[in-house]
Amino acid sequence: MNTCMKEIAMKMKRAIIHIDEEACDGCGKCVSFCVEGDLKIVDGKLRLNAEKYCDGCGACVPKCSLGALKIEERDADEYQELVYVRC
Known about the structure:
The protein is an all-beta fold. The chain has strands at residues 3-7, 11-19, 39-42, 45-48, 69-77, 82-86. Strand 3 and strand 4 (45-48) form a beta hairpin. The model has no long low-confidence stretch (mean pLDDT 85).
């Protein structure tokens, strides 16, 4: 039996960043405060690279003077879950 590591995206309710795209001006001040390195500016707006990497710590939230960031509890990909499966 061969085993390999695959990422399995499973949804679960957890804390994760919410970005108000209308309020965000793309300044990028919050990006360097993301402990997980999960934030980036794309086309002048803040984006998550992948919700599975956001741990919901909120370090970025106070860096936004426009109030475009908040932590919310919602269905999101499970945080960095790796599962070994047959392949």
